[in-house]
Amino acid sequence: MTKIAPSLHSKRLDLLFTVLAGIGLLITAVGIGLDLIPGTSPGLSGPQILMIVGGVVITVTGLLLRNASLRQAIFGNLLKNLAISVLLTVITLVMIEMVLGVVNMPTRYPTEIPDTFLTEVSWWTCDEAGCHYVYDEMNKACENKEVSGRRCMVNQQGFHDSQDFVYDDAFDDKLRVLMLGDSFTFGGTAEIGSSFVETVESNLPDAVVWNTGIPGAGTNQAGASFEVYAPVLDPQIAILGFYLNDFEDNMMPHDSYFMGVDDTNYPLSIRQYMIDDNGNVTKLDSQSDLYFRYFQVDPPSSALDRFVGTTRVGSLVLNTGDAIQQMINKSNGIRLGRQIDATREHLITVRDYADDNAIDFFILLIPSREDLTALTPRYLSAVQLFEELGIPYLNPLEDLVADDYAPDPDIHWSTAGHVKVGDMLTDCLIVFEETDDLNNCTRLTIPSS
Question: Do the domain assignments include residue 139?
Fold first, then answer.
């Protein structure tokens, strides 16, 4: 009978591997449980499957290694075979790297970074009114074919509007509406003349409608535009288009985007800030940082992180770890909680400014495509926040269908969606014009608080 080495035959080791098996069971349970969290996508994701498989492997390993004889068989010859084990591991990793290369899996970090990635454009500026285009410079860029589409349709103040932000005595007897918001309000993806703002203008030709929507804007940007132009334009109604990514936008300064052109003169807008898993905001100062953001990854934390992330095997490990961390953070709501707090403060500022200046104010809630099939945590948080703050809102969700959104990955409404929502807003504005009371618009949800 083979004598078992005392160092490998002890109750402490039995207990250690029992605990290891328990940890494996816990990891498996967490992997399964993440799919049950309200608001998460149905079905097991890749990182969840890895967690479950990894947990099962750890559990089985722990249970097997509780057997002292098996421990002796494995560890007794470990040192003898260590060199072979290392060699086999290296060969295996190289083979996996080659296979991932054949299937063209991208690396986490680009292997080469240009010295100058983007050159700052002259047609974009940020001031007390928020961020907007520069009229003369934008006209030059459009003439040179550097920019096209809606961005070439700007007024003297640099916003997408056919009229300047000036008041005329002829407006005294007209309905005056000031639109606030981001790329949806700007008119993203809609045919020219058919955005929801333009639809309102077409439906109400006698009204005056001003549009301060700017792509990438949050409620903080909307508040800046509101406070600068409301005293000039004297609107009767202000409407804030609130898309669900505004929660993240509101964590950052309103001038968070870097507008530049690459070496082909193609215009790009890249966020100059990143938000970590705990909701902390950090500015990215270098061209290399902007280059990483272009690839939609956070800059590497160290030289080792950078090296690992330029290999496909390392990228797979790092991306899986990030996905697991994001799922865990999603379950405890750290980031969303910070975003809700920031958004609450900005909404209070806009609401109170409207109240202090006798301007009727309501929000156009813009659901995401995902909300058509299952309500997302951001959607539910937005509704709860509007109710908490007592802000009236128009929620078009029940009337929207998949065709009202542009093809994925575009997040905006299609022309059909824009026109549908523009008609809803028109109904409310007609009621207000006739009764001088938004409460009479049945399409609006009026919070009881």
Answer: no
Q: In the listed set 33, 48, 80, which residue is the last one of a domain according to the structure?
A: 80
Q: Are residues 238 and 346 in the same domain?
A: yes
| Site of tokens 């980031």 | 335
Can you give the pLDDT at residue 317?
A: 86
For 34-105, where are the alpha helices, taking DSSP H only?
46-64, 68-75, 82-102
Residue 438 in contact with residue 432, Cβ under 8 Å? yes
Is there a contact between 216 and 257 (Cβ–Cβ < 8 Å)?
Answer: yes
Q: Tell me: do 74 and 178 sit in the same domain.
A: no
Q: For residue 306, is it within any domain?
A: no
Which residue, of 33, 57, 80, is where some domain finishes? 80
For residue 87, give both structure tokens. Answer: 């060699």
Rounded to an integer, the average pLDDT of 27-48 is: 63
For 267, the 3-state DSSP assignment is strand
pTM, full prediction: 0.77
Q: Is 145 left (phi over 0), alpha (psi -120 to 50) or beta?
A: left
Backbone angles phi, psi at 436, to 5 degrees: 60, 30
* Residue whose structure tokens are 């003349």: 193
Domain range for 25: 6-80
If one counts the domains in the chain, the total is 2
3-state helix, strand, coil in the chain (%, to 5): 50, 10, 35
What is the helix (H) or strand (E) element at residue 269, kind and residue range?
strand 267-271
Q: Is the pLDDT of residue 276 over 80?
A: no
Nearest Cα to 154, choosing from 93, 94, 215?
215
For residues 238 and 393, give the distance between their C-alpha atoms in angstroms, rounded to a whole number.
Answer: 12
- Classify residue 196: in a domain, yes or no: yes
Helix (H, G, I), strand (E, B) or coil at 138: helix
Give the confidence band of 60 by pLDDT, cuts at 50, 70, 90: confident
DSSP letter for 316, please.
H
Q: 211 and 339: one domain? A: yes
Q: What is the 3-state secondary structure (H, E, C) of 153-221?
A: CCCCCCCCCCCCCCCCHHHCCCCEEEEECCHHHHCCCCCCCCCHHHHHHHHCCCCEEEECCCCCCCHHH
Up-side HSE of residue 265: CA atoms within 13 Å toward CB?
7
In this structure, the answer to whether residues 56 and 180 fall within a common structural domain is: no
Instruction: Give the C-alpha distances (Å, rounded to integers) separating 401 from 100, 396, 404, 405.
Output: 38, 10, 5, 8
Q: What is the pLDDT of residue 18?
A: 85
Give yes or no for residue 64 having a pLDDT over 90: no
CATH code for position 179: 3.40.50.1110
Residue 42 forms part of a structural domain: yes
pLDDT of residue 3: 47
d(CA 221, CA 250): 9
pLDDT of residue 6: 46
